[in-house]
């Protein structure tokens, strides 16, 4: 178990620290001053030291000096109310790993402890079984949302909400500060940003959004008469462009680019579930093309994870006689190559399509995932 | 005391005397001068264009704030952006001020490394402004415009000392006398005297309190202030130096200490800080006014 030594003269502060560190699933040792801290360390080695600066008998700086002089390189986080640069420079030269300004927030303390332990590769990871919080949880995990729309015109939000698939979550903001606040709280997959918002430099805002949401795709919302050249927008860092008034097909194409793999063929254990097709009929070929690509990738992952059987749930996939066979053939061929037994979940209609090809006629068809798993 | 140090002391006294006597007149920085001259050519001044020019010009911004701070205009403490200051002044006063600024000759050094150092001073100021503004926005602080303006002015003493040194160099050349500095000597003089000059200027010109706070103490945070403009600018200044957008040499440990304190004080996480600072130099250089 990870052990943390807290050296602090205030009993109240020690109590707070002990509570926070214990919540991380770590053992806590306590000392009231630097001398006691050194005595503890003679008896037992620890993974991290939380050290106060001002203490009676021996202060934190003296304890740290003696510790380092003895060759002990245990990471040390200094806790102090001292914010002067020169004091901290001296502490850094003595060899502190990090610093926390008192009074501190519990999350900050937990975050810095986790960071210091990660940096110190020799230290064992905290005991997960004891309910230790992981990095992101310590710093406050963000909730997920699909689309953030930033446009000063409320009508744009309404239009997009109507055009986006129902299952997608969308949040609309009309100004820079509320959009940044949303980005501090949530993780978005796509951010749609109007390039002309009164009193907002959209290029500056884009840069700020990208800092907060480095993994989100950004789409510029432009007007037809803006003569916006997509190349210029890409240079600025946008991943795509959407012209106002919106065309459903253009929006679907964009969404196809940014929302594909995970949702179109979700994997849970050895069950691959194809998502329902919700777009316009013209988009059906592209939906099947993507499923074809994804099924190979996902089957490879199952083989890599040592599964013997793969269950492909096609219950929500339209039984298109001209497109489904290719998907089934692709899946069967990939499964055979990987040594997996393929079971398909689907309707009788899918069964008929399977029976009409030699390669797929021997694949087991089941009405439900439970049936396929029980087989 | 070396000759350069003596020169620095004399120059400091000259500047402090001029500030005290309220007769310090300064030109705009070279490339902005052209932009400003264009702005005042017509019968009216485009205030939006003027505000954009000020975004890159600490000296001119300080002059505008000085004008706002004087008389019955309400004082510079109420001002949080150059655009707001220009609006308070109004077109005729802005035109007069810009006219005065561009009428001053901008001296250029014959030494390329010194010209490059002036550019570094300028780029650093703009970079701190950009970073402070973005930080303010990202941590949800009040007043991103204020952060930009204070960031731009945090080292206002440096371009002032630099331009006056160039003026001396130019005047000496005109009288066939030799005044020649190496880049290091030149930066050494600026480093030695820019802070007292800026403090005196900020006081005399009545620059906003956040500007004064940062000028007086650029490395020590106001712990009680938490996430405030001055602290954000202090953090931005250290981070800007750490990513190499700096002027001359600086102490890495000092910058690390300032960053460590700032992160703890304002709850800024490492990932955000590093993403924010990534490519800062290039971003700022691309946004600066280009040479004609």
Kindly, what is the distance between the CA atoms of the first and last residues of chain B, rounded to a whole number of angstroms?
41 Å
Span between N and C termini of chain A? 44 Å
- Measured by DSSP, the beta-strand proportion of chain A falls in 15-25%
- Quaternary state reads heterodimer
- Principal-axes shape call of chain A: flat
Shape of chain B: globular
Strand content of chain B: under 5%
Walk across the major sheet of chain A and give the strand order. Answer: 2-1-3-4-5
Content-based structural category of chain B: mainly alpha
Gyration radius of chain A (Cα, Å) is: 29 Å
Total of helices of chain A: 17
The total strand number of chain A stands at 15
Topology:
The complex is a heterodimer of chains A (375) and B (292).
Chain A: E1 3-7, H1 11-23, E2 27-31, H2 34-43, E3 48-52, H3 60-69, E4 76-80, H4 85-94, E5 98-101, H5 106-119, H6 135-138, E6 143-150, H7 154-163, E7 170-173, H8 176-185, E8 186-194, H9 202-212, E9 217-223, H10 230-236, E10 240-244, H11 248-258, H12 261-264, E11 265-268, E12 271-274, H13 284-304, E13 309-313, H14 324-338, E14 341-345, H15 348-355, H16 358-361, E15 364-366, H17 369-374
Parallel strand pairs in A: 1-2, 1-3, 3-4, 4-5, 6-7, 6-8, 8-9, 9-10, 12-13, 13-14, 14-15
Antiparallel strand pairs in A: 11-12
Chain B: H1 3-20, H2 30-39, H3 47-54, H4 58-69, H5 82-89, H6 91-103, H7 112-139, H8 144-153, H9 157-174, H10 183-204, H11 209-216, H12 229-242, H13 252-266, H14 270-277, H15 280-287
Helix pairs in contact in B: 1-10, 2-3, 2-6, 3-5, 4-5, 7-8, 7-12, 7-15, 8-11, 8-12, 9-10, 10-11, 11-12, 12-13
């Amino acid at each position: 178990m990870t052990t943390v030594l807290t050296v602090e003269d205030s009993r109240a502060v020690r109590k707070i620290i002990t509570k926070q560190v214990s919540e991380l699933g770590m053992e806590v040792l306590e000392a009231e001053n630097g001398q006691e801290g050194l005595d503890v360390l003679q008896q037992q080695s620890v993974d991290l030291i939380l050290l106060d600066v001002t203490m009676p008998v021996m202060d934190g700086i003296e304890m740290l000096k003696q510790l380092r002089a003895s060759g002990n390189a245990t990471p040390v986080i200094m806790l102090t109310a001292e914010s002067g640069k020169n004091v901290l420079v001296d502490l850094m030269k003595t060899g502190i790993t990090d610093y926390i300004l008192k009074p501190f927030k519990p999350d900050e303390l937990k975050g810095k402890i986790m960071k210091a332990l990660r940096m110190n590769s020799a230290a064992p990871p905290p005991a997960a079984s004891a309910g230790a919080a992981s990095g992101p949880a310590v710093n406050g995990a963000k909730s997920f949302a699909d689309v953030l729309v930033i446009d000063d015109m409320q009508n744009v939000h309404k239009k997009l909400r109507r055009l986006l698939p129902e299952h997608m979550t969308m949040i609309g903001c009309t100004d820079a500060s509320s959009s940044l606040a949303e980005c501090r709280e949530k993780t978005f997959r796509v951010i749609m940003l109007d390039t002309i918002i009164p009193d907002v430099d959209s290029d500056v805002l884009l840069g700020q959004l990208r800092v907060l949401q480095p993994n989100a795709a950004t789409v510029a919302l432009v007007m037809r008469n803006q003569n916006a050249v997509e190349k210029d927008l890409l240079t600025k860092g946008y991943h795509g462009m959407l012209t106002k008034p919106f065309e459903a097909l253009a929006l679907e194409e964009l969404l196809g680019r940014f929302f594909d793999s995970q949702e179109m063929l979700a994997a849970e254990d050895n069950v691959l579930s194809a998502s329902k097709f919700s777009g316009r009929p013209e988009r059906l070929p592209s939906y099947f093309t993507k499923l074809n690509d994804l099924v190979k990738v996902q089957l490879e992952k199952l083989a890599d994870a040592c599964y013997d059987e793969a269950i492909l749930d096609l219950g929500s996939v339209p039984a298109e006689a001209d497109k489904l066979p290719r998907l089934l053939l692709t899946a069967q061929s990939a499964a055979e190559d990987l040594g997996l037994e393929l079971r398909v979940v689907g309707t009788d209609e899918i069964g008929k399509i399977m029976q009409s090809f030699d390669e797929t006629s021997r694949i087991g068809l089941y009405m439900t995932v439970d049936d396929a798993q029980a087989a | 005391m070396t000759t350069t140090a003596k020169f620095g002391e004399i120059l400091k006294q000259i500047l402090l005397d001029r500030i005290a006597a309220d007769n310090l007149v300064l030109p705009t920085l070279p490339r902005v001068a052209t932009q400003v001259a264009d702005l005042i050519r017509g019968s009216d001044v485009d205030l939006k264009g003027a505000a954009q020019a000020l975004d890159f010009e600490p000296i001119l911004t300080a002059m505008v704030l000085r004008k706002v701070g004087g008389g019955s205009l309400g004082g510079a403490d109420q001002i949080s952006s150059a655009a707001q200051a220009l609006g308070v002044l109004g077109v005729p006063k802005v035109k007069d001020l810009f006219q005065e600024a561009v009428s001053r000759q901008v001296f250029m050094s014959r030494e390329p490394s010194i010209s490059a150092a002036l550019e570094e001073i300028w780029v650093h100021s703009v970079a701190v402004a950009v970073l402070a503004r973005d930080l303010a926005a990202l941590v949800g602080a009040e007043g991103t415009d204020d952060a930009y303006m204070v960031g731009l002015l945090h080292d206002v003493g440096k371009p002032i000392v630099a331009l006056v040194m160039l003026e001396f160099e130019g005047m000496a050349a005109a009288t066939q006398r030799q005044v020649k500095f190496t880049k290091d000597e030149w930066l050494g003089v600026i480093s030695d005297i820019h802070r007292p000059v800026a403090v005196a200027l900020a006081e005399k010109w009545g620059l906003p309190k956040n500007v004064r706070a940062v000028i007086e103490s650029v490395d020590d945070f106001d712990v009680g202030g938490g996430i405030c403009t001055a602290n954000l600018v202090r953090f931005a200044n250290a981070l800007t130096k750490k990513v190499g957008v700096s002027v001359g040499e600086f102490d890495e440990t000092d910058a690390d200490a300032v960053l460590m304190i700032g992160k703890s004080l304002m709850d800024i996480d490492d990932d955000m800080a590093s993403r924010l600072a990534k490519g800062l130099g290039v971003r700022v250089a691309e946004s600066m006014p280009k040479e004609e």
